[in-house]
Design a protein that fits this description.
6 helices; single chain; globular; 3-stranded antiparallel sheet; 6-stranded parallel sheet; alpha/beta; 30% helix
């Protein structure tokens, strides 16, 4: 459920350029630049930036696609210039096949084509969304994704263990691939207050 404010499903979407981070939230869309004063929307030349979404066991796949290209998404919440063009599904303990069927139908209604393999899913796209609930699968899928040499959004959390998280970061660095994962909860005022408080202590 992406509606309750208490649900921490506010996600960073992608780190597209050195100037700005595009963020999807359950309340809409905002852009948080590295330098607010320096940021200009026209600096992000992302016209027709095509994405492949891997995994349907998380509701984020449909939620993000809806914010990008859903017919009923308010214009002030849409991100223009980005489009999910393909998706791939696989069996998951986190979502029954019936639920994945429903999500597939929603994606197809928004113009997304289903692919039967990872290779077909990423063919001709500009970026990859890794959307799977089980963090134990993240390392395996990042190992596949970095070979495509495309920027990657890895849905939270980064990994199941610290060691796997370090390996994921190393893979991105060694393959010179841009990879992003985070939570927009870090920008909540209360979160920033707690972070400052912790940083001032000896932990």
């Amino acid at each position: 459920n992406h509606n309750p404010p208490s649900a921490c499903f506010l996600r960073f979407f992608f780190h597209f350029s050195s100037d700005a981070i595009i963020v999807l939230t359950n309340a809409g869309v905002f852009r948080r630049p590295r330098s607010v004063d320096a940021y200009q929307p026209e600096d992000n030349n992302m016209s027709d930036f095509k994405l492949a979404a891997i995994g349907l066991d998380t509701s984020h796949t449909v939620a993000f696609t809806t914010l990008l290209q859903g017919d009923k998404t308010p214009e002030d919440q849409k991100i223009t210039g980005l489009r999910v063009v393909r998706a791939m599904r696989f069996p998951s303990a986190f979502q029954a096949e019936e639920g994945q069927n429903q999500r597939q139908a929603q994606l197809e209604a928004m113009g997304v084509q289903m692919a039967s393999s990872f290779e077909d899913a990423v063919k001709g796209v500009d970026g990859i969304l890794l959307e799977m609930n089980d963090p134990a699968m993240h390392l395996e899928w990042v190992e596949k994704a970095v070979k495509a040499k495309l920027p990657i959004f890895l849905d939270k959390p980064l990994a199941a263990t610290l060691e796997e998280g370090k390996r994921i970061v190393d893979l991105a660095k060694k393959n010179n691939v841009r990879l992003w994962t985070a939570s927009s909860c870090r920008f909540f005022e209360r979160s920033e207050e707690h972070t400052s408080e912790l940083q001032s202590r000896q932990v």
